[in-house]
Design a protein that fits this description.
The protein is α/β, with parallel strands linked by helices. The chain has a single domain, classed as Alpha-Beta Barrel (TIM Barrel), CATH 3.20.20. The chain has 11 helices and 8 strands. An 8-stranded mixed beta sheet has the order 7-6-5-4-3-2-1-8. Helix 3 runs parallel beside helix 5.
């Protein structure tokens, strides 16, 4: 029986999630693109999943479970620790992207907690990219700009996902100034045949470039997607047409040059 399928939340359940052995991590590369041509690996995004074979294996279900349990911080930290454990196996020239909740980032203890992960994994701050999630609509109340500035001063780079933007005037981008803005796969995939999506992509590209924010196109699933990304002069991309997420062992075998 899947112990995670029901609504009951127990200490054993949370301890199981907290254990690194119960979480799996797949790495998906973010490639540098030159006119739509695939270049070298810019970063590896660490995609953490829940216990294999359970109802919370998918990240969406994992964090829905965490919210129900009031254990967002426990699960978020477990995912970060699993990501950095895998990052320690990557070479010193590749950036490591890890997802983290905005509510975790703003905690006073987070800077030192991240420093502990950095020391343990031997991944310096300068190679860390934090993809800050669930910031839309709450970033002002959380004093997120100040928290991000402290991390940036240590050398950490910050990424936002475009779908997290909740304010029509895009205040979050102006005040928080992330280093990267990730265009969601829903917007990118199939945009070559969808005028509305292309219009949104162009507008977001113009805004981000005006603010000095580097764009990453997610969800590149076909050659047509890649061609459009190249036409829009987006120079970082991610998606199944470039490479699917793979366990670290597969990357060490299949792509030694990327390591």
């Amino acid at each position: 029986m899947d112990v995670y399928a029901g609504s009951a939340i127990t200490n054993d359940t949370l301890n199981g999630i907290r254990s690194l052995g119960r979480l799996s991590v797949h790495l998906q590369p973010v490639y540098e693109l030159e006119g739509g041509r695939i270049g070298r690996v810019h970063a590896f995004e660490c995609l953490t999943r829940g216990p294999v074979g359970t109802a919370i294996e998918a990240p969406v279900e994992l964090f829905a479970f965490a919210r129900k349990a009031g254990a967002d911080l426990i699960v978020d930290r477990a995912c970060l620790e699993a990501a950095f454990e895998h990052a320690s196996l990557l070479p010193g020239i590749v950036r490591v992207e890890a997802n983290v909740l905005a509510t975790t980032v703003v905690l006073p203890s987070f800077r030192e907690y991240l420093a502990t992960l950095v020391r343990r994994s031997c991944v310096p701050f300068s190679r860390v990219v934090l993809d800050v999630n669930d910031y839309g609509g709450v970033w002002k109340a959380l004093d997120l700009p100040e928290a991000l500035e402290r991390l940036r001063a240590a050398g950490v780079r910050i990424a936002f996902d475009e779908k997290g933007l909740g304010d029509p005037d895009f205040d979050a981008l102006i005040q928080c100034r992330p280093d990267y803005l990730k265009l969601d796969g829903y917007l990118v995939h199939g945009a070559f045949a969808d005028h509305s999506k292309r219009t949104m992509m162009r507008a977001t590209c113009e805004l981000a470039r005006g603010l000095g924010i580097r764009l990453v196109a997610e969800g590149i699933e076909t050659q047509e997607d890649l061609d459009l990304v190249g036409a829009l002069e987006i120079d970082l991309g991610q998606g199944y047409a470039l490479s699917p997420p793979r366990p670290i062992k597969e990357w060490m075998i299949l792509a030694p040059s990327a390591r």
